[in-house]
Amino acid sequence: MAGRVDLDGNQIKPITICMIGAGGFIGSHLCEKLMSETPHKVLAVDVYNDKIKHLLEPATLAWADRIQFHRINIKNDSRLEGLIKMADLTINLAAICTPADYNTRPLDTIYSNFIDALPVVKYCSENGKRLIHFSTCEVYGKTIGAFLPKDSPLRQDPAYYVLKEDESPCIFGPIEKQRWSYACAKQLIERLIYAEGAENGLEFTIVRPFNWIGPRMDFIPGIDGPSEGVPRVLACFSNNLLRREPLKLVDGGESQRTFIYIKDAIEAILLMIENPARANGHTFNVGNPNNEVNVRQLAEMMTQVYSKVSGESSIETPTLDVSSKEFYGEGYDDSDKRIPDMTIINKQLGWNPKTALWDLLESTLTYQHRTYAEAIKQAMSKTTAN
Ligand SMILES: NC(=O)c1ccc[n+]([C@@H]2O[C@H](COP(=O)([O-])OP(=O)(O)OC[C@H]3O[C@@H](n4cnc5c(N)ncnc54)[C@H](O)[C@@H]3O)[C@@H](O)[C@H]2O)c1
Ligand SMILES: O=c1ccn([C@@H]2O[C@H](COP(=O)(O)OP(=O)(O)O[C@H]3OC[C@@H](O)[C@H](O)[C@H]3O)[C@@H](O)[C@H]2O)c(=O)[nH]1
């Protein structure tokens, strides 16, 4: 770790980071990276710590004096400002961010993504502290191309679908499509942070992740999360594969996504942390434009990869079509296509994603199989016995 330099050749000084939402999927990978490869300290704030337990215990770990866990709900805890003051940089990851919640718990979604983030922005601004805030690719909403006639040749022109931080509009559906409660709350907090930068000099970076996936994402229903819970697609499909049941394709599985391996994405965040002069004042797409599939293709690929890593043949009917109303309830809507433009992050940080979709699914599903297959078998045999 000695002699680490930034992109401009300057020595990197150890800093203290207040990481809010450190116990989640992204937070756990970021903590892991910071502990194993950097000298920085982390004040890890979350209501849960299961996903970072391996970094907190035992006290003999090499980095034991560089990470502290604070069990704090940022909605109502006066200790938050003190932690932000103690740190050089705050990273805010805390949010409700699973689509099944956006239309069924729209108030919690809006409070979590806008109201609860307000004090974090305010404390950073008032105390002259740098902020890296996690927004989302969902702020782009639907593509312009989605509104062209189905057979229009313009749909092939990247100008109508590639998403650019400084050019693309944010296109959401009507208010009764409560799916957009999340994207809209994230958009408003982005605008507020930008305004704090413009009017009060807040040093900020906004991150728009495009479907980061990998180990520890969300939960497997009935094993380490509620039986009736609906996580994001990676965990939904993993759960189906582990239980040998068909993967459910919402509205035909036609929506398109680009998936990026969490470990590639974390490299980008580390560059932002350690190169403030290049990252401050910017909004960055972080995704992998080369890994585009529609959800049906994702299901097919996951089925093949899971057969390979588990040694089990796939079931006779591997997918099942369901309507979005049946799966998510009233008020669901969807982003049609999400390809990140990489110009800004390339120019500022020289970063590029590396891992191909097949490879990232192979390492992720190997982890899912190793972590959950036995627990699922036991849970299923108990249900059958009862
Ligand atoms: N994973 C992705 O692909 C993705 C895509 C777009 C945006 N994001 C954004 O990145 C951030 C992190 O996402 P993630 O995938 O790690 O989600 P996650 O749900 O795994 O992590 C969020 C963490 O925040 C914590 N948290 C929520 N409310 C809190 C509160 N009031 N007080 C303290 N802790 C609280 C949760 O307990 C959880 O551990 C979110 O802001 C999300 O909107 C993620
Ligand atoms: O079992 C399932 C689960 C999901 N899906 C579909 O798969 C696609 C991806 O769904 P995900 O649950 O991963 O979530 P989305 O990509 O729609 O949104 C995510 O994007 C960025 C972040 O801000 C959030 O993490 C989340 O909002 C959607 O089209 C969804 O309808 C299925 O077809 N079957």
Biggest sheet strand order reads: 3-2-1-4-5-7-12
Name the beta content range.
15-25%
Stretches with pLDDT under 50, minimum 5 residues: none
- What composes the largest sheet? 7 strands, parallel
- The tally of strands reads 15
Bound molecules: nicotinamide-adenine-dinucleotide, uridine-5'-diphosphate-xylopyranose
Order of helices and strands: EHEHEHEHHHEEHEEHEEEHHEEHEHEHH
State the separation between the terminal residues, measured CA to CA: 55 Å
The gyration radius over C-alpha positions equals: 21 Å
Instruction: State mean pLDDT (0 to 100 scale).
Output: 97
Helix fraction? 25-40%
Structural class estimated from helices and strands? alpha/beta
Q: What general form does the structure show? A: globular
How many helices? The count is 14
Structure description:
- InterPro entries: Arna-like_SDR_e, Epimerase_deHydtase, Lipid_A_modif_metabolic_enz, NAD(P)-bd_dom_sf.
- Its EC number is 4.1.1.35.
- This protein is an alpha/beta fold and 386 residues long.
- The chain has 14 helices and 15 strands.
- It is globular, with a radius of gyration of 21 Å.
- Bound molecules: nicotinamide-adenine-dinucleotide (NAD) and uridine-5'-diphosphate-xylopyranose.
- Nicotinamide-adenine-dinucleotide is lined by residues 21, 23-27, 46-48, 73-75, 93-95, 97, 112, 116, 134, 136-137, 209, 211-212.
